Amino acid sequence: MSPRARGAWWLLGALLLAAGAASAEGPAKTVMVILDESTEHRPKHRDTPGDVEKTSLLHGELMVALIREGWSLVLPPPDAMTGDRRLARDVAKKAGAAVVISGRVRLHEHAPQDAEGKMPKLYPVTCVMELTAASTDDGTVRGSFDASFSMARSGDTPEVIAERGGVSLAKTAEHVIERARTDAWAELAPGLAAHLKSHAAPPSGAPGQ
Amino acid sequence: MPPTARVTRSASQALLAALLALPFAASAGPGPKTVALVIDEATEATVVAGLPPVPPRLSEEVATVLTRALMSGGWTVIVPPPSPPIVRALDARDLGRRANAAYVVFGRVRFTTHPGFTPDGSVESVSFPVTGVYELTVVNTTEGTVLGASTGTLAVARPGESPGEAVGRMNVSYERTVHGIVSRQRTAELTAPILKALDAPAPAPARKGAK
Fold first, then answer.
1. Tell me, what's the ipTM?
2. CA-to-CA distance for A137 and A199, rounded, in angstroms?
């Protein structure tokens, strides 16, 4: 090989390295979850002490599902709690996450039902949520989820409802959140896979490899 | 120069040219079916002492419903970077170009929460009524033209229905009421005009001098 040809190959190699460095905006399999979440009591038992930690159950469930799939989690700044998808994308991008999952989760605890003194007593909890997963580099939405849940599902027998909602508000909330997480994950997972497919393979040694 | 060296040289030159062209190919214009969503929101409340606080960002529900409808229609939805509220089509066009989207859907949604009531008319927090108004506009960012617009009002009660009959659909929370209106009752009404405007063929450019 002539010196000029060898020089051209060296130049090519250097350019390849430079292009690789320029396109590396962080590993593709990093994600930040920013949820605007809260639990509200309905008026009839507003004097009941609130349990604001309940909605973080969903946050936790989502993070467990993501880790199980090999995603690296980037934690949001302490004051980042926004339902605004545009702000969430900005925060996640600055923190180096390739994907952001943002949205709102509201749990509502209702007055325990004890119709005409009949047992068992029920502790109803309902949930409204909307989630959006987006790539932070170009803002492409990878999945969107929007649903409301209650402790009862169509076709449930009174016995099943009593078992699910007859222990405590916390126990009912667990059932509702578990159902919300399952449905949300089923909706978001294909989009997250599409994000990975559209990006370069993560370097060897990265989580999930 | 020996033939092998000549071949190596031309191959490396071709590779170099392809490599140099890559960044430009990657940053070429937006895909034909990319749309950026910019929904400005506001929630107003008729405040009554003792009632639950009014939740913020109810209109995010509208953005989510539109996102799902657009994605089902084969569109790639872009979340643009934060910006001041968009009120002019020109600003939407510029934002769309910055976000690398071929189209922008922008607009405003205003939800107003009202004190709860019982069917006998007394003010009591057993229901969570919400009404809303919206206006949405579709802009082609390449041409800088407005393709369509949609405005309307949102309420729980159906035409001819009394508030007492509708109370069963607003007895959980303000969020649940909005979810019911936007995601169940009025989804098609909200999304159909937008999808129609986006999927309509672009009008032929006006001829010079035409009246």
1. 0.73
2. 11
